[in-house]
Specification:
Rossmann fold; Calcium-transporting ATPase, cytoplasmic transduction domain A; seven-stranded mixed β-sheet; alpha+beta; 50% helix; 701 residues; 27 helices
Amino acid sequence: MNNHEHHQGHRVTNTSEHHEPDAHAHHENAAHGHDDHASAEHSGHDAHAGHSVAMFRQRFFITLLVALPTLAWAPELEHWFGIAPPQFTGARYVPAVLGTFVFAYGGWAFLQGMWRELRARLPGMMTLISLAVTVAFVYSIAVTFGLPGMALWFELSTLVAIMLLGHWIEMRSINQAQGALNELARLLPDMAVRLNGDQVEEVPVSALRDGDLLLIRPGASVPADGIVREGDSSVNESMLTGESALVKKAPGQEVIAGTINGAGSLRVEVTGTGDRTRLAGIMRLVEHAQKSKSRAQVLADKAARLLTAVALSAGAITLGAWLLAGAELSFTIERVVTVLVIACPHALGLAVPLVVAISTTLGARNGLLIRDRRGLEEARNLDVVVFDKTGTLTLGDQRVVGTTVDGITEAEAMTLAAAVEADSEHPVSRALALSALERGLAIPRAENFLALPGRGVKATVQGREIHAGGPALLAELGASVPEPLKQAALQAAERGQSSIYLVENRRALAVFAIADAPRPESREAVQRLQAMGVEVVMLTGDAQAVADAVAAELGIKRVFAQVLPDRKADKIIELQRQGRTVAMVGDGVNDAPALATADVGIAIGAGTNVAVEAGHVVLVRSDPRDVPRIVALSRATYRKMIQNLWWAAGYNIAAIPLAAGALAWAGVILHPALAAVFMSLSTIIVAINAQLLRRTNMGAR
């Protein structure tokens, strides 16, 4: 990761302003209450705005304690166990007093929710629950004060208690799903060690400013983004990238706020604090993704609204049908209440948001930042992935991609060449030096270095006078070139690669093919996508020969070469016109139109701000293997959504006739409290099924 990536990370994520959720819940319940979930006024599941896990837990236990005594006056108790209710002056009003408390205290959250739904003209779950308990309350009050019939105080109290329990369990599941934001927030330490000349002072992280010099002790969390100025260590970045291997840090390299320092000590200059850290940017992206709508969510919202209308209609039909059939009013009211409770589209409203919350946080933990949920949703349908070549499939930096030797080993040739080129600023010299270091070779010190403009360089290495350069150097020296080296140079030229010769005593010992080298992970990424049934296409402005050489090495069969920057989007459109669903993966400014045009735009995290802004998904690492992992996550997410939607909708469709009393002729009557249990169970099943998404294997690195 470079400094450029650091800055783009900050700017990228400003697409969505971050607002800290209100802290309604206790710290043990992640402190953010339910406002993340309640962002919901936009995501369909908006019933709990302003509520918290702790509030529902407290109201459930108090309501349960108050509801239990109403059992003593319930007709069911005498019917089941032959126990008569206690008799004393005013005893007949005790259930009414307790039931009224339960309605006002336990039912208040539902009444609030109904008011919000009606104000938004989107009646749903809270409206149905509130109607059910209100009908039961009003009818029971009327019976208590003289209306012929049987009061439903026990049914009302148990219904409210069970609904509170169901909502408490549901909200715990949602908070756990969205807890990744809180986990990320907790990565930052409260205090930092700042160096002020010779003084060492411990200061709050909020007091840090750009340019401050920090001491990062072994095992400490990095409090701000910065650049290492002194020291060597390895840093654990797994909480941000999902990569378990420690990342070595040396002077000039970047460290990210929230990561954990290893065994070494570092002195770091601060470059970003607070909302400008990469960690804060990731949190904004996750939050933005969880609030953005997907097509499946729109479908679920419509289904939930339709089911609400069906429930209200079913309640009205149930009321009319039983009254026309001559049923007792208490029995009829009980049927209406049962229909309204069991028809609540609670599970349906939760089916998609909970899966999305889990998938976006799961992606964030693994270095896949979802800027737009529709991009993640569409990734399951991909049948073509178009990769930009330079900087995406390749390193974007030249390396030695082929070595041919004569009378010398490859390791010796690379060592001598890297030593001779070590003091040169030329890109080819850098390619030789980096390639030698990546192979773990020790580069000896060169003496008497001399640059030969337009031809190459020479130096003395371990007492040997060595030259390195191109064809012009061979001509000047009159050097002989063995046939194998000539053939290797010709083949490199056909592939559009540069050739550098290693010469000693006017004889060429080796030839190095220099080119923009493929990333080590690229071939594996291509193979994984192909195994998933996705075609891989390479898109580049390079010459056909250069593009074909890279494509052949990576196993890519289709190549668009010599494509001008302003024509890249046209190639995406060309594929789409063939009926293909296309993803574009890129990192440069000239990739932005193609990223925006594609069905799914995937921006490499180390790329430019423009590219990342245009993408639906951002890869924290510049690792093409994360592309098949996006496809795998998308497919798993969709499976969970469909499973939940079928369960939620199918349950309601089957349960409404039973609740209305369709099987009363067979003696099958569903009690309101039992309906509340079934409705809560349906919701819990959906929540548990969504949690199973965490087990998704997106492919090991």
